[in-house]
Amino acid sequence: MTGAAVGGANSAGQAALSLTAHGETVDSVVGGTDVRTRMTDRIRGHPRIQIYTNNTVRELAGDVTLTSLVIET
Fold it and tell me: Which CATH number fits domain 2-72: 3.40.50.360, 3.90.1230.10, 3.50.50.60, 3.60.10.10?
């Protein structure tokens, strides 16, 4: 299963690491050019976290839970 964390600061970093602790892979969507968190080294080096920079979330979809998101690059 794949999860998503949006943002480049501490809360997004904590969310990404938390999801991987539950066995998920995580797409980390960052609006800027870099991740700015105290956990940067842990996030960048994590085998189940893929970081996408310079993106904007345009749409979230799902009835009860989030099922997809549309990003603009």
Answer: 3.50.50.60
